[in-house]
Design brief:
With about 130 residues, the chain is mainly alpha-helical. Helices cover about 70% and strands about 5% of the residues. It folds into two domains: about 60 residues, Orthogonal Bundle (Arc Repressor Mutant, subunit A), CATH 1.10.10; about 50 residues, Diphtheria Toxin Repressor, domain 2.
């Protein structure tokens, strides 16, 4: 996994967990991604150094504006791609897994055109 892809996955997971639970801790991320606590701790240190998150002494993790922008962009891509793939008849679980891979590498122009196509066809882009 490329460094940027890993960073984007962590930020997207933080956003999802915050929306789901109202809070995020390293242990929640480790559980959600099935990663070891030391791996998540190292990643949080890198994200903190990059200005994408803050961590309170209590262990609560918060996205900065920079981190939130990245996370929301990736999550929007994930939702649109998953919707598109399932509309093609792909099993929802496979569609979500493939969307998770594609969301990191699809060119912005391709993504914008796909979104415009889906909107023009009246296909929901946020399932």
């Amino acid at each position: 996994m490329k460094v940027q892809e890993s960073r984007e996955n962590y930020l997207e997971t933080i956003l999802i967990l915050k929306n789901r639970n109202g809070y995020v801790r390293s242990v929640d991320i480790a559980r959600e991604l099935d990663f070891s606590k030391p791996s998540v701790s190292r990643a949080m240190s890198v994200l903190r150094g990059a200005g994408c998150i803050t961590m309170e002494e209590s262990g609560l993790i918060t996205l900065t504006d920079k981190g939130r922008a990245i996370a929301e962009n990736i999550y929007a891509r994930h939702r649109l791609l998953t919707s598109f793939f399932t509309r093609l008849g792909v099993d929802p679980q496979i569609a979500a897994e493939d969307a998770c891979r594609v969301e990191h590498v699809i060119h912005e122009e391709t993504f914008d055109r796909l979104r415009a196509y889906m909107q023009a066809e009246g296909i929901p882009t946020d399932e």
